Amino acid sequence: MSTGQAILSKMSAQQNTEQYRHENWQGSFSEYLDIVKANPAVARTSYQRMYDMIIADGTYPVEGSKNLVRYTFFDDPHNNGEDAIFGLSETLMALVNVFRSAALKYGTERRVLLLHGPVGSSKSTIARLLKQGLVRYSRTEEGALYSFGWKEEDGSITWDPMNCEPLQLIPMSARDDVCSALNAERPADTYSVEITGDVCPLSRYYFQQRLQEHDGDWTKVLESVVVRRIFLSEQDRIGIGTFQPKDEKNQDSTELTGDINYRKIAEFGTESDPRAFNFDGEFNVANRGMIEFVEVLKLDVAFLYDLLGASQEHKIKPKKFAQTDIDTVIIGHTNEPEYRKLQSNEFMEALRDRTIKIDVPYVTRLSEEVKIYNKSYNQARVRGKHIAPHTLEVAAMWALLTRLEQPKHHGLTLLQKMKLYNGKTLPGFTAENVKQLRKEAKHEGLEGISPRYVQDKISNALVVNTTSTSLNPFMVMNELESGLRHHSLIGNDEIREHYRQLISTVKEEYTDIVKNEVQRAIAADEDALTRLCGNYIDNVKAYTQHEKVKNRFTGEDEEPDERLMRSIEEKIDIPDSRKDDFRREIMNYIGALAIDGKQFNYKTNERLQKALEMKLFEDQKDTIKLTSLVSQVVDKDTQEKIDIVKSRLIRNYGYNDESATDVLQYVASIFARGDVKDES
User: Fold this and answer.
1) In angstroms, rounded to a whole number, what is the distance separating the alpha carbons of residues 426 and 417?
2) pLDDT, tens only, 487-504
3) At CA 418, angle to CA 94 and CA 70, rounded to 5?
4) CB 109 within 8 A of CB 45
5) Low-confidence residues of the chain: pLDDT under 50
């Protein structure tokens, strides 16, 4: 058994002290100028660093869209997708475009970014991703940044409390010349070095004090400066700030801009001495990085004044000091009710004018919503309980239906609209029609049920159904429906009843899905399908060529079996008036394959395969006697056939034994009521 010391020794051997020294570099100001000349990116603004951080992870196109791209950064690849953002491609593109514009200094760097959307729509997750990204990026060579400190007579170093850019120590009169020298051999694809703003009051105090000691020679002052690499860290309060509203009696604006250290006043003699001031407000801390304002519009007006100056002028006003320069990305988030208050408050006009609103709606694409739940509820996380097929899908389906606006298009249902958004095709609807549907629904995704509510109910269903080995859709739907009575964010009974009706809609859709699966499992006899297909093709060939078919049993020539052909074609809604066209299409398709030396297989024609499966199901359902499942007596022959169907459900569709039995019994109960139709 390893001792504690042995474990520590092993860990010590794995440490790379040389790398630590390299990452925690300290040097002179002149050495820092060499670093800047070789790599101007170290002197980037906060917006430039933010944009480069996102772009560094790359992009990829959004499937089914020509104009949208996904930024890999928002898939959270560095954390195994723990905070991945699903869907919202347009929102994230809009956000990154603001960062790009700000990086190029087109004006958006002087605005507050306001993430606006309903509760649970990923606003906080986006902010958290950006903060974590900056922390991680600052530890890479590409994201390196530096600050400075002052050597004291006793050998100690007083570090700049706001982690200011070392180049800000260069006086205004010399900045143009220094920048020209630094940019002289700059690579064409990098940012040019620009020096803006001034250091914090404490460093300004030290600079002026030592400038007097060196008779105005500022280059001598810089010899007492130590430059070091810094790493952004929310925990260490370096470059990452977070501010949220609290009780008005216990919060004041000094939490943003710092406060006087009263214990040091006796030592330094005055409140206006920067050495007697704590530059530890959230704006001070967030310099060189990012500050997040949680529920920003709930802030008292006094805080908003600081916010205005910080965004427009990049300055804050600490108590007893002149305006102080900051360089930080300001991101706030809020929900719809608070934003409406902002719009109606004439005293907030200045804030509205300095705000870029980015809508962060709920997901409105089914496949993306399913991913949200699959991230939390999968076989790796939910141990000891099987999640039956379609369980998460029906939950996502219901959540999406609550968010969609009723379509204005005559004859289009809400369910069909959801399917169109998910990439399904419907007769008479093109991609342009779908775009128009989205344009007409301006508030779509800004109301409805949040993913949090659904996640809570899935969790509850997992806990409540202790005796079951699987979680099925009905368990989740029951939880979703029962929870509506106590849902605090549903405004009135009319909306609550609408949501209940949508659960009924989802149940009907789920019924159609599982009926189709059971039908296909019953009809999944490859040999029988091949024989049925061969019989159909023989008859179609004879029909289209005006020939007769040889009866395989009697050997006599007979007319093509019209009844057989129509029984298959009707399964996929081929009307009698179109049967000749469909049969010719099939024969032309077979002929084209023959020319290429290929053999026809019914699986290559999706519509024909579906028709054959449904026909075979119809022929076999009575022999299997599925309806006997609802009784207690099942003969041995029927049980064997049912077990075959069950094994196909397990193998082909992802059920376990319990959930396969459940779904068979559910579909059997429908058969017993005589509710099954010929269509899927």
Assistant:
1) 10
2) 877 878 889 999 999 999
3) 30
4) yes
5) 630, 675-680
